[in-house]
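Project standup — Tuesday

K.O.: blocked on the structure for the chain from last sprint. Re-posting the sequence here as requested.
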Amino acid sequence: MKQPILERLLGVMEDVLRTPRTQLSATTEAEDIPDWDSLRTIYLATALESEFAVTLTPDEMAALQSVPAVLEILAAKGVA
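H.V.: unblocked you, prediction finished:
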């Protein structure tokens, strides 16, 4: 059985952002995480492309500023 998208996403974010899972939730925003800077956003984009088998545009990468935004982008890519 596949993990729910949110759980997979939070696992990726935990690794990329070097942040304990307990500090990540469905409402987390970039400003909540000290290590979530522009470089980590690029790393996050690359990790998301790998984990979810999607390709993100530069505009989508720039929009990776919160968990809700990431989920919205993934949904638009057909990730369910």
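K.O.: great, moving the ticket to review. The longest helix spans residues 38-52. The chain has a mean pLDDT of 94.
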